[in-house]
Specification:
Length: 41
């Protein structure tokens, strides 16, 4: 679980996010946003 959490945080930081908590809330509201962050869709 820690590996997944750290991977998510690293991906958010690489995309330019400065506030992790705000980005997590924003991405959790729409199931497609995390996929877009990963470049899957």
């Amino acid at each position: 679980m820690a590996t997944l959490r750290n991977t998510a945080i690293s991906l958010l930081r690489l995309s330019g996010v400065t506030t992790i908590a705000k980005a997590l809330r924003h991405n959790s509201r729409n199931p497609y946003r995390p996929l877009q962050l990963l470049g899957i869709t």
